[in-house]
Amino acid sequence: MREEKYDISGMHCAACSASVERVTRKLPGVERSEVNLTTGIMTIAYDESQCTQEQIIAKVEKAGFGAALHLEHPAPAAAQDAEDAEAAALKRRKVELIAAAVFSAVLLYVSMGQMLPFGLPALPLPDLFSMHTHPMNFAVLQLILAVPVLYCGRNFFRGGFKSLFHGNPNMDSLVAIGSGCSFAYSLVMTFLISDDPSYVHNLYYESAAVVLTLVSLGKFLESRNMQKTKGAITALMQLSPDTAILADTGREVPTGALKVGDVVLVKPGARVPADGTVTQGESSVNEAMLTGESLPVEKAAGSEVIGGSVNENGVLYVQVTRVGDDSTLSRIIRFVEDAQGRKAPISKTADKVAGVFVPVVMGIALLAAVLWAIAGQPFSFVLRVFTSVLVIACPCALGLATPTAIMVGTGLGARHGILIRSGEILEITHSVDTVVLDKTGTVTEGTPAVTEVLPYQCETSDLLSAAAAVEAVSAHPLATAITAYAQEHGFGGTARPDHFENLSGRGLKAELDGETVLAGNRRLLEEQGVDVAPLAADAERLAAQGQTPMYFARGGALLGLISVADPVKETSAAAIRKMKEQGIRTVLLTGDNRAAAEHIGSLVGVDEVIAEVLPEEKAGVVERLQAQGRKVMMVGDGINDAPALTAATVGCAIGSGSDIAIESADIVLMRSDLQDVPRAIRLSRLTLRDIKQNLFWAFCYNTVGIPIAAGLLYAFGGPLLSPMFAGAAMSLSSVCVVGNALRLGRAKL
């Protein structure tokens, strides 16, 4: 099964996207077809043995739309060209809109100025164009003023009738039929004026022109606002520099030409061209756009750097480790694109409604026209009702309600270092009521660190100096932690043991300056005749807390105790507290012994601790909780968490975790900060609220607007809705929906 993306052109409303989905799903071998109205991208999954790219494109074009294979995260230059082209098109539309508005305003002055209500005097107009003395001139002047407006709105007619003839009527079809009928009727009346001057009262040029102008205004504002919703991907694409400097030659090469293993020079103020490891230099690097972390991160030899981050002050030499699609930036872009391209369940429901909406509206408009004609109303009245229903019922607002909110929501998440795989995940995350947390690397730092140093009948410096000397030759993680701690406190030194022996399961034995130094557990020291009783109680206390106490002795005398543990992240307790405030139950899931797990659980305040669980059993725990009716989010970072991440309602991976965990997750926290879990849940809840508000507005608008346009109020003595006001209301509804979605982008997580 092959999955591809296509850029679809010519879409203006939800009915358009529904039409594309409907025709492509009829192709043999097509399993899934989803069209995102806001991005203009169709995602289609099909069997290559039954269907081809050419058939897909041909099917879309036959339905009245354009299709081209989508270029996945293009080069920054290409992305900039596309953005420039879009900006130029928007500028051209602006010029045409201004021209249409000017001609429409003059047309309104000419046509309506002679027929002011409430006994108001007519607006001044040369006698040559007076409707009373020169009705033909009056009509021809309106015709001349209306033609430029129709030209500026030509895309409505071109796209609308094309879609109608292909059996896929859309918003353009409604506008084209409504304004076209008004113009055609007025044109016929113009020719009849020479025979009967009373026909001058049956001109509706201004309705056709103003409807086109107002709808064009709404579409322009909508397009301009939509550009803002696409800002997340655009901003990310612009992060990657066009060129990089090779360290060995000093030559400047395109970033796309870099290979794994290349060493690049990154000057102060420049962007890191690719993911890599610092081989030389020290500097502060700003990763805010990629991780959401506002503070610069200190980098030195051995530090990992992310392509697209900004080197602030020092010179760095970076060895490239990832390029192309494997880079962190590409993965982030892919996450955001997928999230904005895949529809949420609520969006699919709205699209199904919109798909049948246009044909139904055309039927309602025709029925209303027929009923008013039977009731004895003149043709001008019937035409007015017919046009108003067609124009006001456009399902633009309905089609934009969900995808705009999804786009803004995923973009907001990306700015905070929260990557959400799909619109569906963004929607369902709000329902999470249980968060299961892996311990190591998630709640804790994931790397051992010294927690306590207890010297016995000696100075702390003596204990740390001896420990650093013997542990420096060991590759054990505990030894690394002790060595790093000693160096931080200035006791690293350069002393090295003359003889070194690693005693499996017990520790190590070394000769330092002619004396035997022991480092290990209680068993080792007791075997060597060292009395550990003075510190035994402390060792038991630390062990009960899940820490690893290590004894040290020199020359047969006890030096002290150094305890190493995986410390709890500073933000873990605050994150769990926020989850509880959101009404979420928290569970700590770990393979550690129960005593250690209970201690960590009490420190961070989780509701439940499940300990001594094998890696392969974690997914079973998640499934058990789901069987109890709970919506579970699993948060983990390791390879062993991947099955549980996949099994959970929502899988959430820590950004610093394994690639497998990240690929298995629905949400990735780039900052590796547990506080981003409640932020992701809040984001989902805010987005869903925004979607519901948009859908409520869209449905209410159509529910109320269509009956009024059909003449319901008029039937009970009220006013009859003008097509001009119908066009204004339709445009306003779309702008309101997009504006409400943009408001989400300013939300505080």
Task: Annotate the secondary structure layout.
Blueprint: E1 2-9, H1 14-25, E2 30-36, E3 41-46, H2 53-62, E4 66-69, H3 76-112, H4 135-152, H5 154-165, H6 171-192, H7 205-229, H8 231-237, E5 243-246, E6 252-254, E7 263-266, E8 275-280, E9 283-286, H9 288-291, E10 297-299, E11 304-305, E12 310-311, E13 316-322, H10 328-341, H11 345-374, H12 379-392, H13 396-415, E14 418-420, H14 423-428, E15 434-438, H15 439-443, E16 449-455, H16 460-471, H17 477-488, E17 499-503, E18 507-512, E19 515-520, H18 522-527, H19 533-544, E20 548-554, E21 557-565, H20 572-581, E22 585-589, H21 594-604, E23 608-610, H22 618-627, E24 632-636, H23 642-647, E25 650-654, H24 659-664, E26 667-669, H25 676-709, H26 712-715, H27 723-744
Parallel strand pairs: 15-22, 15-24, 22-23, 24-25, 25-26
Antiparallel strand pairs: 1-3, 1-4, 2-3, 5-6, 5-7, 7-13, 8-11, 8-13, 9-10, 9-12, 14-26, 16-21, 17-18, 18-19, 19-20, 20-21
Helix pairs in contact: 1-11, 3-4, 3-7, 4-6, 4-7, 5-6, 6-7, 6-12, 7-27, 8-10, 10-13, 11-12, 11-13, 12-25, 12-27, 13-25, 13-27, 16-17, 25-27
